Amino acid sequence: MGKTTISWTDFSWNPITGCSKVSEGCRHCFAERLARQRGWSTLPWTAANAAENIVLHPDRLNQPARLKQPHMIFVNSMSDMFHPHIDRTFLQQVWNVIRRTPQHTYQILTKRPEAIQERLPQDWGGGWPNVWLGVSAEDAKNAARRIPALLTVPAAIRFVSLEPLLGPIEPKWLAGLDWVIVGGESGPVHRSMDMSWARAIRDGCQERGIPLFIKQDSDYLPGQRSYLVEEDGTQVEYHEYPTMARPPEQKPLF
After folding, report:
1. Is residue 40 part of a domain?
2. Helix, strand, coil % (nearest 5) of the chain?
3. Which CATH number is 41's domain given?
4. Is the confidence at residue 7, as pLDDT, over 50?
């Protein structure tokens, strides 16, 4: 666990690594590329290889407890917490750590929102105040499917990461969300993001009072041009967060 270059969070925590691709946004998955470079996975991230590629790391479970000051923590940037191959007993241990470290804000993204409800802890209720639940959606088809599924799950904050943004998305799908992240694809074979798509999403967020975070434009390197470009060429940063940007100050329960 360590500081991350992901601009909308502080740390990434990966008690689980490995996944399998489910849609076009996964085609150039940075997590797969990194996992195979570091030897955490040896096979392509296909559904057939998921059982072998998904690895549990019990030695990493207590890492958040070592951070005494409050931080925003992205959970499983190298996996999907709601992947069906993840052992439920181990998943419960992950939830236990999150429960016992209420000083942190945990941000969880999935491409499998239909699996969230059955994998939540029993005392979830209306949502834990230090957990934000989100979905990734790269295009109109997946926004229309994943966002409504997310909105059926109670949570303190529900958000969407439109990254890599591969096409226009109707702003109507943003209704009910608490936060929107927009980002283009990075990497050696990145696909371009049309800035007009990002502007339409910006307009939709402003109409609905939803905080917007523009993470990056599409580029070889991640984090390039972290601003929106207006039609006249003006560059505008949107690095907004939900009003409840961090949970109330609380002590860890360890």
Report:
1. yes
2. 30, 20, 50
3. 3.80.30
4. yes
